[in-house]
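Re: Re: token formats

Sure, here are both.
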Amino acid sequence: MTTREGSLEAPQRHPIDWQNPEFYNEESVFKELHRVYDICHGCRRCFNLCNAFPMLFDAVDESSTGELDSVENKVLWDVVDQCYLCDMCFMTKCPYVPPHAFNLDFPHLMLRAKAVKFKKGEINFRDKLLSSTDTLGKLASIPVVVQVVNAVNKTPVARKLMDSMLGIHQDRKLPEYDSAKFRSTAELNESFAVKDGENTPGKVAIYATCYINYNEPGIGHDLLKILAHNEVPSKLVDKEACCGMPKLELGDLEAVAHLKEKNIPHLAKLAREGYAILTAVPSCTLMYKQELPLMFPNDADVKAVAEAMFDPFEYLMLRKTDGLLKTDFKQPLGKVSYHIPCHLRVQNMGQKTREMLQLIPDTKVTTVERCSGHDGTWGVKSEYFEHSMKIGKPVFKQMAASDPDYISSDCAIAGRHIQQGMGETRAEKQHPLTLLRIAYGL
């Protein structure tokens, strides 16, 4: 668990009381915003995490009294829009989180405020569209359609129109869609004997995620090759929808609940059958490990899924602990600049990806522990693009400093963002799972 100055106890998360009507009481939310902002203003340890805190602190410093009481109410709500729920303030910086008497959970207060704004209808078409990742993926990955979508996303004139009409920044490099969807093309192997370890189930179910399924299916195929090489039988989750993280970040908690009802029954069945459930997107893993259990604390199926859910490298390093991981690497990787994304750091499992990559002979891994500034859809939006690039600037510099052969992040979107921020570089961008597959010589 991350150590926090001034506290000898681990941070504790309270359940999200989102089904209580009082949760959406705007007056109550504003009162809590004022209480928490006042504490943050007096502390200021989080000044360098994202743009929410600098916006708040600048507003206070520029006010007539130099205190929160003279800051316009609109600014207090504007701060909410700057938070993209990375959770880093709660997990690494704040000395006032529960069990402290101040009981401060900044990200979940921001979530509550976003939920209030959503209930009031203060959400535009673009935000609803971008958060519907499954629907977008299904439409954009249709053969023929996919070529048009990918071409439009690279056309300057079209991007200017998207900027002016939709609010998707013209300079943001967008991921391509792939008509060869992962779930349609995955080559599974269930013929290996199940070898359970003390720490790991010996069979795996893959939750594809929207991004891997529609945008970068190669990452999913690399995971399957790695599992097959290690003689771990694998299968896909029978049916899946979006994990709900984009809707959570929007404050659409009813949509999160709806997606939970689609996903959890299939996942819970697998968990009870003794499968480890792997996702190659940290935000999806975090959704099932933390957010859904906090939204549905009394749901036994949600709890079972949370206990069976693994990050791929968390699982693989536990297989090593069990003496069941193959380390017959054939290809060195040289110098790797590796970025550990926020939604992986806050899972508090250590740096398993770095540990795995360091097992590869003649491979030097430089690890960057800082928010890249993109988030899922936040850095795509016109009004936040410049902020995302500014937040990511220290990461871009640190990633380039070692003149790496590869740049890599467990969050594929963060990897794309970092590559764009670095500009011209000889380094090749690859997901850590792809690097591991290369090292195995597969």
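Second one below.
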Amino acid sequence: MDLAYVWFFIVGVFFVGYFVLDGFDFGVGMSLPFLGKDNVSRRQIINTIGPVWDLNETWVIVAGACLFAAFPEWYATLFSGFYLPLLLILIALILRGVSFEYRHQRDDPRWRARFDAMIVWGSAVPAFLWGVALANIVQGVPIDADKEFTGTLLTLLNPYGLLGGVVTLLLFFTHGVYFVALKTDGQVRADARRLATRSGLLTVVAAAVFLAWTVLSALERGAPLVGLVATAATMAAVLLIGSVGANLRDREGWAFAFGAGTVLFAVLTLWFALFPNVMPSSSDPAWNLTIENASSTDYTLTIMTWAAVIFLPMILLYQGWTYWVFRKRVTRARIEEADLVAH
């Protein structure tokens, strides 16, 4: 197989890793107003991702770097056409990261409340805009013969794009609440399980509509991998329903694992629907950006392949080790004990 096609799927793997890992980070941040009844419970929630959130975000940096190196034409059109949404995502991620580091620097409720609000919005904005961006990439956007995006921000705010944003917002929220239930104890854990049931049911409804729309659109376009699109969409739906069922039975580990599987197959659904294009043109199919006309040279892709073979396993091992080290629950008693020692 041509290396360009291999790298199309490798880039997809990096985006799957990013959305699975940073997806639950976003959900944890968005859950603060619903589960954080006092400062100790809010610290419990934030501490569940405290050791790993910045490591999770590196996946999008690697994905962007691979996109730039393997598909420069795709990178150029995407980042110029989606400049404002991507800028908003970047600002939100910066504000969220700053808030994690600064909220505990002053013992003032108003100080903490401001940074908590930044965590919530810094999680919700990317969760929504990533879905809008992905849905529009799959659906197609106005691209001219020079491979330049000719639309505006309003072009991206179409029904399919907005629905994609709502689905990723709900999916990441539910995924994050599963993680909170898995990593905490006491009242926060019990509240998280109840909240995950309600948000999970909403997610099932929204995701079912979005996935069905995606499959039907792929059928209408005659997408070459339409069978894989339908299979991945079905798997995403089954795993999502399974996650809600596991949560109802208080099987937090299974609920979180099924939630991660849902994100994985949802991204694969979009990736398979996109193939063999990387950015379809809604102006004229002849102007589609495809895997072949948007990729780098074989020499560049060969060097990248060797780098991926060497370094990707090391990254996975390091991240797995990190999660193993911080695998224990964040208990309320431990935070209260730390407060007593500090005072």
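The longest strand covers residues 277-279. The chain has a mean pLDDT of 91.
- S.
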